[in-house]
Amino acid sequence: MPDEKERSEQTRASTAPAAIEQSDDREPRFGGSPVIPPPEVFEKARENQPPWYKALAQAYEQFVADPENAVYADPKGRGATIQQTWLVFTLFRLEMYCLLARPLPAASTERITRLVNCSTSDLIDVLKQIHVATGSIAVTVAYHDGKTGHCITVHAYDAQRDRFIYQDPWPARSLLAKENNPAEVDAQPEGTRWSVTAQELERVAFAAFIFPHQWARVQNQNFDLFYEPWTKAEFFRFFHLQRLAQRMEAGHTVGVFAPAAVADKVALLVVYPESGKITRASLRIDDRWIIDNFTLAIDLTKRFVTCFAPMPDAPTYHRISEVLWSLRDPQNMLKARDANPDDSDAMRCVHALMGSVKRASVVTDLATLTVGMGEGDPPHRVLEFDLM
Fold first, then answer.
1. Which of 179, 196, 287, 319 is deepest in the core (most CB within 10 A)?
2. Which of these, 93, 126, 123, 98, lies nearest to 111 by C-alpha position?
């Protein structure tokens, strides 16, 4: 079974429909190809798809069958436009930046909330910058060769050879192989993947779908929280945190901390690689201790949220911390208890903390906050930040 990172990469490569066909209004659609392999090639490809992807494809078919979702691409139809491809990402709660390197009518992009018009050279430069900033790329790129097109996932850039390494979901040879395109792109095998020169990719690039955290890094936004500065921050000092244990997991340091007086009731895990950038923070609080020390517990949770929230996403998490802090007033507690959990992100987190819903997740550009009931005994609540 693939791990979470591999599944997300496969999803990015596979959720985009296979190829682009030029329609009467000159808007590219994903569907059709210059070379059709025998039917058994596609049948074998379907058989080899992992169970999670088959379930995903079935769920998508059911979703688009609803007339209310007609704006999404029909998996059995002519294919998907650039806008429909962008909309697929929103089903996974991802609001991507769409870098559009070829002009399209305004009506063809009106639903894309993060549209960046650029040149093909700009698009290529952004991919290179992402590789420099993060060490990898993992960006879905839609290309058009003048006749047909396709979606690939660009994974890396080899600066010495000036080549982009990409994954092609096409079940036969890549559609950027020389015999499969009229744009004179000559893709070369790279193990189970393929590569093209930067000039070749620039020749056919149409659009790229960039993750918000990648775009933030390209824009030089400072949102990382590092371990050493965190140990000198107000949250650390206010609760007199002490490190109880430390271990290594998959190349990351996992530090376990707690306020000295309640080390058996509260635990804080902080995860960071060699660079020191904190990638995960998890707060575990004993249920019984929350009840007996409610005001202090609420103070701890709200300060945890504000401490680890990335600065660009601060307004969302500030609102959550405000609502959490308001619970110290019994009247606000009663109002929150009777409120609909779906009223807001903050209210879902409150209900997860109180136990009326099992789990709540808040996804922002640079982080995911999860609140819910922990596993195992004694009963406890967990607040966890996954940071980009």
1. 196
2. 98
